[in-house]
UniProtKB/TrEMBL annotation:
Top-level division of the source organism's lineage: Bacteria
GO biological process: antibiotic biosynthetic process
Coiled coil ranges: none
UniProt KW keywords: Antibiotic biosynthesis, Iron, Oxidoreductase
InterPro entries reported for this sequence: AlphaKG_dependent_hydroxylases, TauD-like_sf, TauD/TfdA-like
Higher taxonomy: Bacteria, Bacillati, Actinomycetota, Actinomycetes, Propionibacteriales
Protein name per Swiss-Prot or TrEMBL: TauD/TfdA-like domain-containing protein
Cofactor: Fe(2+)
Length: 256
């Protein structure tokens, strides 16, 4: 089942005039709080993506150092679980393999959309899913320190990252900070984690919103609350750019 997004914000108004930056940021914040994500459409070619993103916090470098990352198929990476190929990605949060708190927000924007089928970013809001957990499972996910590893693609690039932290933590946001992976949460025989992965994948398949990009579209989401994934595609020209954003003034973020 596919679900169309409802949290959609236009960068220009009904007169085709560019909406002032502060107004755009304010409305985007409101929509993020309500829905956990916002898709920005009708984005002009001269839109200042990095400047817009800087309103939401400081930047966290991508793997290998680039602050603005590229998401596009990379040679020699088609056979592993990795964002830099054309294969699907399973639901996850970003940064479960960081020793620091995960990025609060992720922002993608579309340089070249995928032609043909596929290539959507999908997102699923965990807020109702956490509320649906029974109390003992929720407490277990707060109190149990799990082992996590990075993706096979990143490991192949020489970053064999391992971390230890719970699935749920309170980091000062209105909702719990979630860290989740279908394949890199190493729970061994933990019944609660096994059930969580099965249940959240089932709900994700039913409830996730599919974002189909047009050129210049922006997708911004609350990575402490929302899972994301990707549908497979065939067009090797598909190209997104990405920024990871943490709350301003926290740890060693790059000033936006
Ligand atoms: Fe991701």
């Amino acid at each position: 089942m596919t679900h169309c997004p409802i949290s959609i914000l236009s960068a220009v108004d009904f007169n085709d005039e560019v909406i002032p930056r502060d107004d755009l940021v304010r409305t985007a914040r409101e929509m993020l709080d309500e829905h956990g994500y916002v898709q920005l459409v009708n984005v002009p070619d001269d839109f200042h993506y990095v400047d817009f993103a800087s309103e939401f916090g400081d930047f966290v470098p991508n793997y290998g150092g680039p602050v603005v990352g590229d998401v596009r198929p990379e040679p020699g990476m088609e056979d592993v679980y990795h964002a830099g190929n054309t294969r699907p990605l399973t639901p996850h949060t970003e940064g479960y393999d960081f020793t620091t708190p995960p990025p609060r927000y992720l922002m993608l924007w579309c340089v070249t959309p995928a032609s043909g089928e596929g290539g959507e970013t999908t997102i699923g809001d965990t807020k109702p899913w956490i509320e649906a957990l029974d109390d003992s499972d929720r407490e277990h996910l707060y109190s149990t320190v799990f082992h996590w590893k990075t993706t096979d693609g990143i490991a192949r690039k020489g970053l064999d990252l391992h971390t230890e932290h719970p699935v749920l933590e309170d980091m000062g946001a209105p909702t719990p900070t979630v860290r989740f992976s279908c394949n890199n949460l190493l729970h061994e025989d933990d019944d609660v984690a096994v059930r969580l992965q099965a249940e959240w994948q089932r709900r994700y398949a039913d409830e996730a919103v599919w974002i189909r990009y047009h050129r210049n579209d922006v997708l911004l989401w609350d990575n402490w609350r929302v899972l994301h994934a990707r549908n497979a595609f065939s067009d090797p020209q598909r190209h997104l750019r990405r920024l990871q954003i943490r709350p301003a003034g926290v740890l060693a973020g790059v000033q936006g």
